[in-house]
């Protein structure tokens, strides 16, 4: 079923006020919008969301005029933009009226800063007891760091991710590294969506809304997964290991004669198959390498042996041979490679929407494929304040 087909959407009729900016909040509300919710993006009249200007690169109209930064386009489709200034009493009253009709409100202001405008959860709950109010901040609403601003890069460091990302000490270029995208923002956005959907389910049974306190640091700590478990349960301190895996060998990037590729042997059978196709079957019978536990103990030795052999071969040949015996492997694609990949194209991963001024916005589709209520992509990222009159009319606000 086409994602653009006129079918019922999972969140049809849900009204969401999006007071968030940058990435974590907007990525969450974009998902809700993809699933059919009516997302009203509330922006300040003076410039709006910061990411409208986070360039280069910038996008351009068919006439060559520079418009929003491409960053803004990644997380603001399926939304309508309304400009309101909280310092203006009329605008503030309008927003409160919108909140009285909303199902969900998402914001990422500093803790306590919306209370002076009567836009905090306690104030709005008095006029809309079913409102689900989600606050996204760097450190949460409580605790000694709650007053601090938090950006993704900072949280990747404070949340432990950078301590296990980068080349190992003693290697060239060894230092803590951030991930190449704002992954902590995106983790937090996904957590916010999950919490909002859980709150909606609870509201269906109880009729009562609730408050959601969603923090980047909490999200990052939760995403440490096996690395945090190694410390919490075994008192093993994870270290930076470059592209190596702390518990599986071989599981890394290897250099071929003409480039690089990834090889992941998740079990002993896959290691045996690897050794067979590169014509070194004796390795899998060697007591030092026979089991994954032994390979971990002799990591440097087996990695060096494999690296030397693979350097004699071409990357495509290695991939072809390994795929023939079901050993997980693959190339390291550039971004253009990803979107030209035949499998990625077959999954309809790239979607486009056109604004009425002729600007085409391309973005990445909502990943899950729902059989009955697929995601839809009807609205391009909006111009600042584009929908003021339309939204007030549709929501019955005079």
What do these coordinates show?
This protein is α/β, with parallel strands linked by helices and 398 residues long. The protein folds into 2 domains: 15-223 and 343-394, Rossmann fold (3-Layer(aba) Sandwich), CATH 3.40.50; 251-334, formyl-coa transferase, domain 3. 36% of the residues lie in helices and 16% in strands. It has 16 helices and 13 strands. The protein has helices at residues 24-34, 70-73, 89-101, 121-127, 152-158, 183-206, 216-222, 225-234, 268-277, 282-285, 292-297, 299-310, 315-324, 335-340, 342-346, 388-394; strands at 15-19, 38-43, 58-60, 66-69, 79-83, 104-107, 132-137, 211-215, 251-256, 259-264, 329-331, 350-354, 360-364. A 6-stranded parallel sheet has the order 5-2-1-6-7-8, with helices on both faces. Strands 9-10-11 form a 3-stranded antiparallel sheet, with helices on one face. The protein has a two-stranded antiparallel ribbon with strand order 3-4. Strand 1 (15-19), helix 1 and strand 2 form a beta-alpha-beta unit. The model is unreliable at 1-5 (pLDDT under 50).
């Amino acid at each position: 079923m086409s994602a653009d087909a006129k079918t019922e959407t999972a969140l049809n009729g849900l009204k969401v006020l999006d007071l968030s900016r940058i990435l974590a909040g907007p990525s969450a509300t974009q998902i809700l919008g993809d699933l059919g919710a009516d997302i009203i993006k509330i922006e300040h009249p003076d410039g709006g969301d910061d990411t409208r200007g986070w360039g280069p690169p910038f996008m351009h109209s068919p006439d060559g005029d520079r418009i929003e930064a491409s960053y803004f386009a990644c997380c603001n489709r399926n939304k309508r933009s309304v400009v309101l200034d909280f310092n203006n009493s009329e605008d503030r009253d309008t927003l409160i009226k919108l909140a009285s009709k909303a199902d969900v409100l998402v914001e990422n202001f500093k803790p306590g800063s919306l209370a002076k405008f009567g836009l905090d959860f306690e104030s709005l709950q008095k006029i809309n007891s079913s409102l689900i109010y989600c606050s996204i901040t760097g450190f949460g609403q409580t605790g000694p760091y709650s007053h601090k601003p938090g950006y993704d890069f900072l949280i990747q460091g404070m949340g432990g991710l950078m301590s296990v990302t980068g080349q190992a000490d003693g290697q060239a270029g060894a230092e803590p590294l951030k991930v190449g995208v704002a992954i902590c923002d995106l983790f937090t956005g996904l957590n916010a969506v999950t919490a909002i959907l859980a709150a909606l389910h609870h509201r269906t049974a109880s009729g009562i809304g609730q408050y959601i306190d969603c923090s980047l640091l909490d999200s990052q700590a939760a995403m440490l997964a096996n690395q945090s478990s190694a410390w919490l349960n075994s008192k093993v301190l994870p270290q930076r290991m470059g592209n190596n895996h702390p518990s599986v060998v071989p599981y890394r990037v290897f250099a071929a004669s003409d480039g690089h590729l990834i090889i992941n042997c998740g079990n002993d059978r896959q290691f045996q198959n690897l050794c067979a196709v590169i014509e070194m079957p004796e390795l899998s019978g060697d007591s030092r390498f026979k089991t994954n536990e032994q390979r971990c103990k002799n990591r440097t030795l087996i990695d060096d042996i494999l690296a030397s052999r693979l350097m004699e071969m071409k990357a495509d040949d290695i991939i072809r041979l390994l795929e023939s015996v079901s050993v997980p492997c693959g190339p390291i694609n550039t971004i253009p490679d990803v979107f030209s990949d035949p499998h990625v194209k077959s999954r309809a991963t790239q979607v486009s929407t056109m604004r009425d001024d002729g600007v085409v916005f391309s973005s990445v589709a909502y990943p899950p494929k729902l059989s009955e209520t697929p995601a839809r992509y009807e609205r391009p990222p909006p111009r600042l304040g584009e929908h003021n009159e339309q939204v007030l009319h549709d929501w019955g606000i005079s």
